Amino acid sequence: MNNLQSCQLYVSTKSRGQGSNNRTWGIEQNEGRQTYLGAYYAIGNVDHMILMAMIKYVTWKYWHAPFLHGLGMAVTAAFDMYSKCCDGLLDPDLKVEMKDRMSNSNWRLLASEQMLKYNPAKNGYAGDKPFRAFSKRPKRMREDERRSGASVTNKQPTTQMGSRWTISNEQSGQCG
Predict the structure, then answer these.
(1) Cα-flanking dihedrals φ and ψ of residue 57, to 5°?
(2) Could you tell me if residue 111 is left (phi over 0), alpha (psi between -120 and 50 degrees) or otherwise beta?
(3) Which residue, 46, 67, 118, 129, is most buried by CB atoms nearer than 10 A?
(4) Is a pLDDT exceeding 60 seen at residue 47?
């Protein structure tokens, strides 16, 4: 149940000031309090980013609030992944200069636009085949659409938004 190895009290020392103005005192601590205080800043930042996502609507249903909070966390995590990819530490080919990167608000607008255009029936991404929108279509129609060339291609970043991946209707180069 408890994820802490132990919950023993101990005293940690704090010190402020320099030279003759140096003050030292002790604070009674335990592992739980130290973990909380160590992570509080990061939790505050994530809460602020979730608030900035502005994912909300008016409802009397109490179960919508946890869903919206989870959705805000997902959007925040996705923007963080975008930022990490733009740093170029994961793959040097994904590096985007700071001046060409999207701001958080521009990134959310682009992600919203892409999700509104997304259709699993087009089978444009890996993992779309199990979706009902794709599997309920007759096999002949699924193969015709695959041959039509609707696919995801890796393109160079646009100067306006800095996006590398776009959905296009160009020929995908697939056989068949």
Answers:
(1) -155, 160
(2) alpha
(3) 46
(4) yes
